[in-house]
Specification:
EC number: 2.7.1.-
Order of helices and strands: HEHHEEEEHEEHEHEEEE
Shape: globular
CATH architecture of the largest domain: Alpha-Beta Barrel
Strand order of the largest sheet: 4-9-10-7
Keywords: NAD, Transferase
Strand content: 15-25%
CATH class of the largest domain: Alpha Beta
Enzyme class: transferase
Number of domains: 2
Helix content: 25-40%
Number of helices: 6
Family: Belongs to the KptA/TPT1 family.
Function: Removes the 2'-phosphate from RNA via an intermediate in which the phosphate is ADP-ribosylated by NAD followed by a presumed transesterification to release the RNA and generate ADP-ribose 1''-2''-cyclic phosphate (APPR>P). May function as an ADP-ribosylase.
Length: 183
């Protein structure tokens, strides 16, 4: 296997597309929890012009810095860890979050978020980070990064549910404006 870093990144982005948003792009169907058999995924990837074998897929999963993908225990199925815009039930159990979590965004969105809160929009959950570095990196994808502080502990005590994905991203349905401040 001799994938360049750029080829690995491109394949990772394509896997994100088909495992999170458009499985129909290569003719796969995710089950209720977002899983697809690895053999089926490899077959459909190869039929769609992406030369991918087990070793390459394992490399992409293992080297993805954001740990966006996960295999099941037997490594027979694969799914995206979170971020789906297609309906899946990831099976995460409610968790008690830290008192403070963070959300990274671009500076152009801050005023709107402080007025109306964070909404999941096309995704299944709002994504939150346990550290400011990760939040800043996420915000940088949307322009000049701004890190927002989220009063997750207070939200949880008021009945809001939080989930922790396999790749350690905190998930919740929405964050009302009163729980958000600029770091």
């Amino acid at each position: 296997m001799n994938l360049t870093e750029k080829e690995t990144t491109n394949l990772s982005k394509f896997l994100s597309l088909v495992l999170r948003h458009q499985p129909e792009a290569i003719g796969i169907k995710l089950d209720e929890q977002g899983w697809v058999p690895v053999d089926e995924l490899l077959d459909k990837l190869n039929k769609s012009g992406h030369a991918v074998n087990w070793e390459i897929l394992q490399h992409v999963v293992d080297t993805n810095a954001k740990k966006r993908f996960a295999f099941d225990h037997e490594k027979l199925r694969i799914r995206a860890s979170q971020g789906h815009s297609v309906a899946v039930e990831l099976g995460y159990e409610p968790q008690t979050p830290p008192e403070i979590l963070y959300h990274g965004t671009g500076s152009q969105s801050v005023e709107s978020i402080l007025q109306s809160g964070l909404e999941k929009r096309a995704r299944q959950h709002v994504h939150l980070s346990a550290d400011t570095d990760t939040a800043a990196k996420v915000g940088g994808r949307h322009g000049k990064p701004v890190v927002l502080t989220i009063k997750a502990g207070e939200m949880h005590r008021l009945g809001y549910q939080f989930y922790l994905s396999e790749n350690k991203v905190w998930l919740t349905d929405a964050v009302p404006a009163q729980f958000i401040s600029v770091k």
